[in-house]
Write a structure and sequence with these properties.
It comes from Streptomyces cinerochromogenes. GTP binds at residues 207-214, 289-293, 351-354. It is a peripheral membrane protein. It catalyses: GTP + H2O = GDP + phosphate + H(+). This protein has helices spanning 2-27, 99-102, 104-107, 115-122, 129-141, 146-163, 168-183, 213-226, 243-254, 267-281, 298-311, 330-342, 361-369, 390-398; strands at residues 201-206, 231-236, 257-259, 285-290, 319-325, 347-351, 373-377, 385-387. Strands 3-2-4-1-5-6-7-8 form an 8-stranded mixed β-sheet, with helices on both faces. Helix 7 (168-183) packs antiparallel against helix 14 (390-398). The protein is α/β, with parallel strands linked by helices. The chain has 14 helices and 8 strands.
Length: 400
Amino acid sequence: METVILAVVIAVVVLGALGGLIVGSRRRKPLPPPPPTTPDITAPPAEPHVGDEAETPRDEPRRTIEEVDLPGGPAPVVVEEPPTVEAPEIEIPEPTAGRLVRLRARLSRSQNALGQGLLTLLSREHLDEDTWEEIEDTLLTADVGVQPTQELVERLRERVKVLGTRTPEELRGLLREELLKLIGTDVDRTVKTEPEDRKPGIVMVVGVNGTGKTTTTGKLARVLVADGRTVVLGAADTFRAAAADQLQTWGERVGAYTVRGPEAGDPASVAFDAVKEGKEMGVDVVLIDTAGRLHTKTGLMDELGKVKRVVEKHAPLDEVLLVLDATTGQNGLVQARVFAEVVDITGIVLTKLDGTAKGGIVVAVQRELGVPVKLVGLGEGADDLAPFEPEAFVDALIGE
């Protein structure tokens, strides 16, 4: 029994000791962490602390803002200067005086069909009826026309009969005289651009597309500038794509201002504005390039008549130049008749009169319209448009 009581006492003592240890551990508080060590901060050598006296700044290398590596971000935007648009260089056209003489080599390519052919036939020892028929055929083939051909052959018959013996020089002189009579040397072929009572002179250029109408207008501007005139161009061909751009390029080359309107716009409105602009600028001449769709289109002819009437609200037209392709022959005469019915043609410009053209068209078109050829185009060059000179033309046809 005593043993049991002793065991119980020992157990109670042990449990009491264990309980005291547990309670004591719970009541024990953790030690606070040691205070952090304060780092030594060194002030910038050149900057004072707040409230302290400023230190004497010391010389040391410094970096610019461009040298400092900035944190990542969008790259700086570089603004580029817009490119400078240079004005086109103004060209100086070659003088028009004697231009046809200088271009005689090109014109003389047409002589085989007319001049040389006639000289060969007239040089035969016996000029029988067959020979005279060949002379007629040569003239007709060269597009001289029926009536002018008959007149020329008749005069040649009479003069050869009177002359008798014929040397090559005599025949050449004879043919030269008769061709000059046929073409006409007493006709005023000046392009009228200087009205006496006003300024500017107004010139309208008409013709079928494909004859070189717009190009001729641009070349005519060069002819006028070469003669010391100032020019405004009116791009009234609003129906053909790029016609206004083409004309403006021609104008920029010689310093001529171009008036243009919207594509497919009213041609009469552009023509009216061009004349108005020419008056305000005080230029010498206004050149108006008109639309040139097929001459069989009634609407086009009505348009041309409207352009003429609208322009004449400013002032009368001084020239209406019809541009014809010399290679089209009799087809060109058909076009000429239709245009002449709508607007009063005052002069003719023959283009492509270089090599394949038949020189007789000069005679035929003058007879058909009763107006003179005033300008001829002899090639693709910018200065290949020349005032028509009958003597230089005939000399090129028959050779020297």
